[in-house]
Amino acid sequence: MLSPSLRRFLRPETAFFMLVWGVFLFAFRERAFYDPGSLWHVKVGELILDHGFMHTDPFTYTHEGRTWIPQQWGAEVLMALAHKAAGLDAILLGFATLVAGLYTWVFARMRRAGMHPILAGVLTGGCLFAGAFHYFARPHMSTIVFMGWTMACLVEYERGRVTAARLAGLIPLYIVWTNLHGGALGGVLTLGLAVAGWGQLFLLGKDSPIKSWRGAWLLAGIVVSCALTPFDNPFGMEMIHTWKRIVGSDVLKQVVNEHKPLDLAKAPDQVVFGLGVAYLILLAGTLPKRPQVTWLLPLVWLALTAKGIRQGPLFAVTAAVVIADFWPHTVWYRLLKRYGDTVIQDPPDVRAGLDWRSYVIPTAAVLAALVFQLCGVSAPLVGRGWARLDPAFSPVQLTEQIQEYRRTRGPDARIYNDANWGGYLIYHLPDMKIYMDDRFELYGDAWTTDYVDMIWYHPERIEDVMDRYGLEVALVVTGDERTQLDHYLSGSDRWTEQGRTKTAVLFRRTNP
Predict the structure, then answer these.
(1) Closest listed residue to residue 243, CA positions, set 441, 44, 438, 436
(2) Residues contacting 29, CB < 8 A, separation 6+
(3) What tens digit of pLDDT does each residue of 69-105 get?
(4) CATH number assigned to the domain covering 396-509
(5) Angle at 261 (CA atoms; ends 259, 265), nearest 5 degrees
(6) Could you state, in order of their start, the residue ranges of all structural domains in the chain?
(7) How many Cα atoms are found within 13 Å in the side-chain-facing hemisphere of 66?
(8) Rounded to whole angstroms, how far apart are CA atoms 397 and 170?
(9) Is the dihedral angle over the CA atoms 105, 45, 40, 189 positive or is it negative?
(10) Is the peptide bond before 395 cis (omega within 30 degrees of 0)?
(11) Distance between CA atoms of 506 and 474, rounded to whole angstroms?
């Protein structure tokens, strides 16, 4: 039996954090690094720490000297510092702690809305799971966290629980956000839509958190100030131009999975769609009462998710925050209160999630894991050597061969590579120039189109590429659905296969 003093530290929030944290350390041991950016972001951060900001591309021979800025520099520096401290293990630890901390906070809000821990866990876990398809150790995780906080600030202000000072606090937060990830624009959009909705209610004489013209102008000033925060960056307008190239690209929506529209033939998209249906059903339970403005904001993100699936985690986190607010006002709450009061707390447990003792054990666990890693202690989940690149996903088996080629060819060694392997090469061979990676804002739509056209429809064009840049070796993607480029190189007597994994093939040109 646990002593009464120990039981005070074992609250539902404690159990929820430890469960999510442990699951993510286990399940994302390799998956956190599936995205190529998870690797090259680290090297960008190291270059910034060692040499300062770069303004031209440092990695390729095809676009060397072309304007390129590290528009996610803040997060890249943090990733580099973690990597210097304990390698990929420290990055995985930070990633898992960030996700577990965010959704434990959401879980606590669900509890304060009057939910039993089991019901709060089911709803929070469902929102977490719906966005998990796009969880990688990348700067965009900061956008998911800050979007959740933005949504909570808007909910609290609309409820009259906080003053405009809480919204004004978003201004310095958005400056930080701007320099971590371009998703700060999404925060500005969400804030602007909320204030616009409140302003419309005020003009119509309806119940609104805006009570006077002075309050209206104050909120308008906050929105304008937040909208100006993207200009507070080390690169000036070039940062804005970079974001514009990414958001405005039509090619990315066709060739990059995370930019593609929602597709119900794919399992992750089905989960997001299912959460959308569940949200609509829960929201319908508030009728015929007029919904709060903030209750409708996740629908905007649901619509944006339909246009680009990468927005799915933002819909999930905004939905989670808002569900915790409108839950006590739904018919579902009243029905459960009448027939299933074991999953309803009435009155709501306002203290749930606010007791500092809930976070003592999680904090101790995270600090202990960090100490293990800094001291080089090998241990499952929390020690050194746990995080790794998946051999079934990344061509790590070919690393030694490529490094040997780099040594024999000297400082002028170059390689043709698929975009998927750009991050892998930058991470393992940062001093060898590559053909390209997934920084498509650098390459542009025309280059990207030609690249996709070559690997799928006109593989013979690689001969011209090899001649133009004086190349000998090519690292191409393969898999269950082999590209035409893979078929072409495998069947050509001008090429010799040097090594093959489940996802990549290394070829060498026999008569360059």
Answers:
(1) 441
(2) 92, 386, 387, 388
(3) 999 999 999 999 999 999 999 999 999 999 999 999 9
(4) 3.40.190
(5) 120
(6) 17-247+257-361, 396-509
(7) 14
(8) 46
(9) positive
(10) no
(11) 6
